[in-house]
Amino acid sequence: MSDRAARHRKIRGQNFDTNEIARATMPYLSRIRADNAGVYSILLGTGDGLHICSLGLATPEDAAAMAALNSSMLGVADSQVRLLDPDADANSTADAVVSVALPDGVLVLSSIVYPPLDHLVLAVSARDTQLGVVIHETREASHQLASWLDEN
Fold this sequence. Notes:
The two termini are 16 Å apart. Helix 2 packs antiparallel against helix 4 (131-151). 45% of the residues lie in helices and 26% in strands. A hairpin with a 4-residue loop joins strand 1 (39-46) and strand 2 (51-55). It has a single domain (3-151), classed as Dynein light chain 2a, cytoplasmic (Beta-Lactamase), CATH 3.30.450. By secondary structure, it is of the alpha+beta class.
């Protein structure tokens, strides 16, 4: 196992509040929330559905459930893309997002390529905010997090 993979392996532990990824991610998550008044929750989880860190969710149980559901939604969307385009490789959908229109808001999911864990899932929920703005902010945060993870 590489040093990088070993260093981030602790993400699979139980204390997500103290791991490096959660600490590094919180400023990005906080910025999205501060810059966009309609954003009410943000969550980062693993591709296999484990919660890493979040803002704006009522309970730790809600955060854990959302992380699992977000992973499933992104996985289903990826499978659908592969059915529509069997020649698509794993990197062709790296910048894709999944959006859900709610009666009073939106939920946007984005995948962040992270080889030690395959990928991470970023979810942003907003009210009274244009879908395009939420998609843009989610993608920007995903790119910034991916860059940070590559450097560390």
